[in-house]
Amino acid sequence: MFQNLKPVAPDPLLGVTEAFRADPSTSKIDLGVGVYRDAAGQTPVMKAVREAEQRLIARQTTKAYVGPAGNRPFAEAMTRLTLGDAHPVIAGKRVAALQAPGGSGALRLGAELLKLSGYTGSVQVSDPSWANHVPLLTGAGLATAPYPYYDRATGGIRSADMLAALERLEPGTVVLFHASCHNPTGADLTQADWQAIATLMAEQRLVALVDIAYQGLGNGLAEDAFGARLLAERLPEVLVAVSCSKNFGMYRERVGALLTITETAERTAIAMAHMQGLARRMYSMPPDHGGAVVAEVCGDAALRAAWDAELTAMRSRVNGLRRDFAAAMRRATGSGRFDFIAGQSGMFSMLGLPPEAVMTLRTEHHIYMAPDSRVNIAGFAGPEVERVAAAIASVAGAR
What we know:
Layout: H1 12-22, E1 29-30, H2 47-59, H3 72-83, H4 88-91, E2 95-101, H5 102-116, E3 122-127, H6 133-138, E4 143-148, E5 150-151, E6 156-157, H7 159-167, E7 174-178, H8 191-204, E8 207-212, H9 221-224, H10 226-234, E9 238-243, E10 255-261, H11 265-282, H12 289-299, H13 301-333, H14 340-343, E11 348-350, H15 355-365, E12 367-368, E13 374-376, H16 384-396
């Protein structure tokens, strides 16, 4: 049987991680792995999360099954965190929420729900997107197609081209959007972009699938959810895949949720039943611990305030590093070629370097980034910024 399996190409980002680990240099810098790091280079357990874990362990009396829907207080907390307490779909009972194994699990669950619903069109995915987006969708039997998004010349958004492409889509087509900070390029849709998208999506009767994994790491919890909240308000049908990996620092716990919004409360109840059935068939039920921890944080006023303060500090650090890196690049290159970094959001930026320059940075300067020159801004310790800028300038030059 297994002799029929064919070799597969290695994951390029995992290759970068392995090369970094094997590098004996004491001055190596890892800007590839997409996790938040503090000034000491660590990915810390948030204090609010640690306190919530201790409380849970102290009072937990069973490890019995939680069921396919997962932790219900967690699902309720994710609904309100993502959409806001006063969102009309909550009052209208038009949103069903189910805990999933991470944001990727939520995306796959949403894809399976689309397939089960009889969707035969292609899911429109931004160019570029994350490497796992297309496999997650096609693995459920859905087709995908790209739509214009990133302007590699300016580091901004191809807004007009994007809207023109969406306008040509058939009614009922599903479009995958990144919420704030989520696109791997670091380029975010503005509120004006979201307004235009929502108007066009409603007019064209399109369906939105929103991936939100960095809420609170861009401009604030409400600001970063603006697009998801607007689409949920303006469209009759929306799917939202939520991850707690980044803003709660719960990477390895695989904590996520799928929010499904339909036209009526009756259809939402039916969708929820099918979501549970799909979960049962795929993985039976999600892991409990991470969802229970997040529910504890969100359900306790003191813990929620402490978490919010920690998240604000993380956001401030990342935004400060963006400004510092952009300024260092201007000094190193003598040009404004990399000024776009300061105006982007979240942990990532796409530098626009050719593959040979990325490899030179690795082999000669011990600086590691994704093969497409995506860097994790949060991977910097402060003093490294100038060194990295000088190295990039040496391989990229100025224009």
